[in-house]
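Hi C.,

You asked whether I'd gotten around to modeling the 258-residue construct. I have! Everything is below, sequence then structure, no commentary in between.
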Amino acid sequence: MNSGCMTNEKHLQLKEGERIDDLLSPSFKIIQHERHFRFSIDAVLLANFITLKRDELVIDLGTGTGVLPLLLAGRQQAEQVIGLEIQNVLADMARRSVWLNGLAGRIDIREMDLREAGERLGCGIAGVVTANPPYRPAGQGKISVGEPVAIARHEVCCTLQDVIAAAGKLLKTRGRFYMVHLAERLADIIFLARRYRLEPKKLRMVHAFAQEGAKLVLIQMTKGAQASLEVLPPLVIYGRPGEYTPEVYNYYYPEAKV
């Protein structure tokens, strides 16, 4: 673990129900709550799908506890990341996780409705926008118990269109929007993306097992680009039950180089 994180952890006071978890490796930590939404493999897959250029401003929509900004700053050395989160309790945990890891100079967590981001932050300011948004429409499927989890998983506070519209406003021309979502909603994603001048450029389907259909899709869209889509080889998470494929294992333990 880096010495700054060790020092900060000694002085951090957790609130009731909170805990400090390793973020992929002992070098980085994240504060999470036992009753609130906790980061999943989806965020890890998205972080490893994103490619950053030097000095780009990254804006993460619906950042939750800040997992994606932490991963991008820690693994890809992102220098400027703004994480937007509408829920006060999650934004507070995210800010303290940023401080815990000594990344306050590189990550800025703001409590904000992403639907207001273009007006409040400015249009055309970001080189990259990222999102791991709620997957299910509010009236579809089983609603999660507890409001914070429901907001994270269902389109309670924002819809897929809201997320894509926000990305379209925030991005510079030729800026890139990276998102992970349900594979079954790919048609909706492409339809809405083109409405906001976001052209799908790279796509990777995600399968739990090689013999199963895709559950998720990783997609990169570029603002104002010409139509031309690169479909990457499928990403398979498990080789067998409970055992990651070498590629995904290396996402969690890059030093292993399996």
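If it helps when you're writing up: The two ends are 22 Å apart (CA to CA).

Thanks,
B.
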